[in-house]
Automatic annotation (TrEMBL):
Its membrane topology: Multi-pass membrane protein
PANTHER family, per database record: 2,3-DIKETO-L-GULONATE TRAP TRANSPORTER SMALL PERMEASE PROTEIN YIAM
Biological role stated in the UniProt entry: Part of the tripartite ATP-independent periplasmic (TRAP) transport system.
Name of this protein: TRAP transporter small permease protein
Gene Ontology molecular-function annotations: transmembrane transporter activity
Major localisation: membrane
Region (Disordered): 154-175
Lineage: Bacteria, Pseudomonadati, Pseudomonadota, Betaproteobacteria, Burkholderiales
Record field: transmembrane: 46-64, 85-103, 123-145
GO BP of this protein: C4-dicarboxylate transport
Amino acid sequence: MKRFLSATESTAAFFLLLIALLTAGNVVLRDLLSIQIPDWFDGTKQLQGIALFWGIALATWRGSHICVDIVWEHLRPPGRRLMDIVATTIALAFLAPMAWMIWVKVGSTGGQTTSDLRLPLTWFYAVGAVGATVAAILAAARLLALARRRPPEDDEHLASELRASASGTEAGHGS
């Protein structure tokens, strides 16, 4: 699971990097040479969609959505676990059909292309659909982990934190 999560994180980061490079490159070329990168705007929109789907996958697994935990903070561990299970079930109920519908969109894209380079939009939609599918899979995996009373965290990271707290040092840092 650690490799899968690492690959998911790297994929999201890679597409964010592409967005930054494409945008910065276009600004530099436009200001210095008065030219633009073809399809830079369409490209950044498509890449942003891809990065968002892959990022949703990570946020779903980690349960680290942007939220206010007013109720959760005041619950005991069994109540927190129940709330996490309900929230993850709702997330899965939305993510699974969304992934399916994105694959339907991939199939119905036909010959649509970007405006300048005529790159097929199917490529972008397919990579986004894989990210949406990974999000649904990770939601299901998180739900199973919560149902088994195991926190869906990196066991190695958790073990190092426990060792560090037992020895009185901060996780990841030696004395």
